[in-house]
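Input.
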Amino acid sequence: MLNKPENEPPWPKRIQGFSFSPMRPGNDPVKHILPTESEVEADLKLLSGRTNAVRVYSVEGVQAKIPELAAKVGLNVTLGAWIGPDPVENERQVTEVIRIARENYQNVIRVIIGNESILRGEITVKELDSYLERAQRELTIPVSTAEPWHVWIQHPDLADHVDFIATHMLPYWEGVPLDNAVDYIIDRYNTLARNFPDKLVVIGEVGWPSNGRKRGGAVASPANQATFLRRFLAKAEELEYVYYVMEAFDQIWKQKNTEGAVGAYWGVYDANRQPKFPFTSPIVSIPEWQTLAAVSVAIAIICFMLLVVDSKTLKLRGRGFLASIAFIAATGVVWIFYSYSRQYLTFSTILVGILMSIGLLGVVIVVLAEAHEWAEAIWGSMQRRAFVKQEVPDDELPMVSVHVPAYNEPPEMMIETLNALARLDYPRFEVIVMDNNTKDPEVWRPVEAHCRTLGPHFKFFHEGQLAGFKAGALNYALARTADEATVVAVIDSDYQVDPYWLRDLTPQFLKENVAIVQAPQDYRDDKENLFKAMCYAEYRAFFSIGMVVRNERNAIIQHGTMTMVRRSVLEEVGAWAEWCITEDAELGLRIFEQGCEAYYTSKSYGKGLMPDNFVDFKKQRFRWAYGSVQIMRYHLGELLRKGETKLTWGQRYHFVAGWLPWMADSINLIFTASALLWSTYMIYLPLTVDAPMLILSVVPLTFFIFKVAKMIYLYHRRVDSSVVQTMASAVAGLALTHTIAKAMLYGVITKNLPFFRTPKKAADSSEFWYALQSAREEALVGIALLLAAWCLYQQHGASSSDQLVWMIVLLVQSTPYVAAVAMSFIGACAQLPEKLVESITSPLADRPKTENE
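Output.
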C-alpha cells in the first residue's frame, strides 16, 4: 500500500545545469584532499549530453582545470570564487577566477563571486561589493554572488553590484512539504522578479536531499528527491527558468561540515556515480519492499516458533498476541537496518551502527521475553504443575528443621518471630536461631533467653565472628541440624509465619524428586505509611505473576525466606554458597542442575517487614541485582550449553529471561549517558549535529510504552489492584532503575562486593535529610536530561519531528530518575499516610484464584 508506483513528469533529455563538485569518497576540500584530473574528466564526460552547463564553487587545485576539461566535452561553465573570512585567500580566489574566465572565454558563461558568504556572516556586504566590482571591471561576462532568496530581500543594495540575481531555492531547508515545494519556489522566484525587475533571476541551486533528518514538513528520501526534481524540471522548462540542479554527485565530505549529515545526499548520482532514482519510469518509495517484506516474514516466523516452543497450554489468543509482537518486532528491525544502510559508511556511522545493532538486538530480545510472560500469564492455563494441597497423616510427615539467621536484629521483633513459630500446627519440627556477628549482648541475649522458654526444640546459637554472611549462618545451622530432620526450612528474622505453613507445604516432599517448596515473600507493614504501601505494591507483581509463570516449567527463583529444601539434596550440592550475596537463588539453580523439582504456591504463609526508607530499599535491590550477575557468571556454561547439567531448555530460558530486564536497565544507563552526550553536541553544534534518526528515537519510546502497557495490564489482571496501586508500583519500580543498572555494571567489572543486610525497624524520623539525599545521583541525571530537553526546545522548538521525538525521548529517559527523587522524598516523609495509595484489598494470602489458576 505504501509502495504503489507514482507517475511523475519524465526527466528532460538535457537539463540546463548541474551544481558540480568533483569530490569522491576519500576527498575533502577542507583538508585540501582533491580528486585527480582524470577523475574530474570522467565526471564531466558522464554529465555531457545530460546537461548544458555545470556550476563550480572554487578554483582551488584541480578545480581550476574544470573549464578546460568541460570544453572538451561541450559543457559550459558558471565559474565560482569561494569567499570566506580569509582576505588573502579571497584575493587569490578572485584573481584566479578572473584569469581562468579570460583564458576559457569560449565556455565560461557566468562568474559567481562568493557562495552564501553573507548568509554565513563571513564577510560584510561592503567587502563583497568590492570583489564584485573588481570582477565586473575585468570581465565582459555576467558577474553575481549567490545567496538564498531571503538574503537578497534583506540586502537589496547588493543587487546594484551584480549583473543577475543568483539565488538558492532549497525548500527542504525551510521545512516546506514536498507537495508544496515547487509552488513555493515559483512564489519566491516571482518575489525576486518583482523586487529586481531589471535583473535576470538565475536559480543557482535547486534540489532535494535523498537522506537526512526531517525538517518541518520536509522529508528527505530518494523517492521525494526524484518526485521534487521531476516536478520542478517540468515546471522550469515551461516557465523558461535558468537553473542549476543541486547537485550532480553526492558529497560524503559534507557530513563533517555545517550542513550536517544531510549535506552528503543532494546528488542526482551517488558517490559511486550511479543514478539514485528512475528518470522516466514510475517512482516507488522503497523499490526493495518485496525483499524486505520477505525478510521480515522469515524473521518473524522464526521468532514466533521460538516463542511457542513448550507452550502447549497457551490459548489461541495468546499465540495470536505473540505472533503479532513477533511480526511487529521483525518489521521494525528490518526497517531500521534498511534505513540505516542507506547512509554512507564512515568510521562514525559504522561505530554507531555496531552499537545500534547490539542495542536493538537487546531491545528485541527483552520485548519478546516480556511478551512471552505477558501471554502466558494471561492466556496460559497454568495447570501443568499446579500446587495441590495434600492431606497427610501426622506420622507420615517429615521432620523439619526451621533455620532463622539473624544479625543485630531488634530483640522484640525476633521474639515475635519465634512466638509465631511456636504456634506452628505441625507434629515434628525444630527451630535453630543462628545469630552471627552481633556485638552487643543486649541485642541477642534476650532472644537466647526467650528460646529457652519455648522448649527444647528451639535452639539458639551465637558466634561473634563468623564468615560467609547469611550463607555462613545457614551453613552453621545446617551442621547442627537434628539427624532425623529431612527438610530444612528458612525464614528471615522478621517473619511471622502462618500456623499451617509446614502442614500445608511439606507433603510435597513425599514426591521423591521434589527438592524445593516455596511460598511467596509477603509483608505486614504496608499500612504503616505511604512509602511502604508503594513498596508493597511493587513487590507483589513478581510473586503473583513471574513466579506463577516460572512454576509451569519448574524454573522458580528460590528466595531465602519461606523456602523449604530437602536436606539430602542441600548437602549433596554443597550447601549454601558463601561466595554469593544471593545465596538463595544460586542454590535453587544448583539444585535444578541436578534435575530436581521445585513447587511454588502463590498463597502467603508468612509476613515480614519491608525496608524503612529509600536508602535500604535501594540497597536491598542492589544486592539482588548484583547477586544475579554473580550467578550468571558462575553458571554461564550450564545455562548456555548442555554438558553434564540436567537443566531443561525451559529452565535455561526462564533464568536468562528473568535477568534480561535488569540487563536492559544497565544498557539503558549507557544509553542515557550517550543521549546526554549527543544532546550536548546538538546544543553546542546545532548546524553540524542533528537529532538521531527518527526511526531510532522511536525504539526506546516504543520499548517504554510496551513495558508500561504490560505492567498496567498484567498488574490489573493478575494482582487484582486498582489504578492507583498500579501507578504506585510503577513509580516504586522505576525508582530502582538506576540502582539496578549500577549493580549490573558493577557485577560485570567486580566479583565480590560485601553482603548488605536489610535492617528492620531502623527508621528514624530525625534522618529526614539523609533519606532525602539518597537519590542525589538520580536527581543530577534527571536534571541533566530535563535541562537538555529544555535547551533543545529553546534552540529548535518543535518544528522538526526528529527534534520533537528526541526531546520526548529525553523526557522519557528522565522518568526513572524523577521517580527515584519522588520515592526518596516519600521515604523521608514517614508521616505520609498509606491511604494516599488505596489499601491492598486482596493480600496474597487471600487473593482469589483467576480462571487460569
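The chain is about 50% helix and 10% strand.
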